[in-house]
Recover the amino acids of this structure.
């Protein structure tokens, strides 16, 4: 006899809710890249939020994921992904895995995704959620993202989803020439600036755009 199939990860109801989210909130936030819109339609965000909040997974809001952290608002996830200008050949590094949702969206549009999380139980939950949602190939590491992931650098793009007070030098060093860095910078507990920076041939950064956002602060590992 066939084993009983596991409960489906996705349902028609969740798919419809994603369609509405994309049409109503993501497109109106200004996101145009078809690959990013397709990713937003595909990634089952409900798999990445705590069970009691599943019904709210397709509202355009951040949600608590435990340990004082949040999964970002979907339209912002889409905007930040679009800012990186990814292609199926891009290698991308994310700092702040959190729930794993942003990493899954990156995995839909980029070739290789690396993500670092400093809170071990969050990293472990993301390591379970990602394969459950169909993303087996995201590389995860527990550690201080300020330091980046030098062993696998350089990256075509780096996305930081927690806010340091200034741009971490190791991340700039691990970006290839012409590579893009999307990062919220500013003091903890205040509005930060979301910067898009492009690395010039001389190693300096060109600032492309900036807009106000509010992210959780980047923590530093104890020395
Ligand atoms: N991208 C996440 C959003 C997570 S919120 C998602 O899609 O769900 C920001 C995350 O950054 C939190 O999980 C927090 O623990 C983590 N973080 C804070 N400081 C960090 C650091 N120095 N290195 C790596 N992760 C960090």
């Amino acid at each position: 006899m066939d084993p009983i199939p596991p409960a489906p990860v996705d349902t028609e109801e969740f798919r419809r809710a994603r369609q509405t989210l994309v049409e109503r909130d993501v497109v109106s936030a200004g996101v145009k890249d078809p690959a990013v819109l397709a990713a937003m339609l595909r990634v089952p965000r409900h798999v990445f939020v705590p069970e009691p909040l599943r019904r709210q997974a397709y509202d355009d809001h951040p949600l608590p994921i435990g340990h004082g952290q949040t999964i970002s608002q979907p339209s912002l996830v889409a905007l930040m992904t679009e800012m990186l200008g990814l292609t199926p050949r891009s290698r991308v590094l994310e700092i702040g895995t959190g729930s794993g949702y942003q990493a899954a969206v990156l995995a839909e549009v980029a070739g290789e995704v690396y993500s670092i999380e400093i809170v071990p139980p969050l990293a472990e939950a993301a390591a379970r959620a990602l394969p459950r949602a169909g993303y087996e190939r995201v590389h995860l590491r527990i550690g201080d993202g300020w330091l980046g992931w030098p062993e696998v650098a350089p990256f075509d793009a780096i996305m930081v989803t927690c806010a340091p007070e200034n741009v971490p030098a190791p991340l700039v060093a691990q970006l290839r020439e012409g590579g893009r860095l999307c990062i919220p910078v500013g003091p903890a507990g205040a509005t930060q600036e979301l910067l898009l920076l492009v690395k010039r041939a001389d190693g300096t950064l060109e600032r492309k755009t900036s807009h106000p956002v509010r992210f959780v602060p980047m923590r530093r590992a104890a020395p």
Observations:
- Strands lie at 63-66, 69-71, 91-95, 112-117, 139-142, 155-160, 175-185, 192-199, 205-213.
- The pocket of S-adenosyl-L-homocysteine is lined by residues 69-72, 95-96, 98-99, 101-102, 116-119, 122, 144-146, 161-162, 216, 218-219 (CB under 6 Å).
- Residues 12-26 form the longest helix (15 residues).
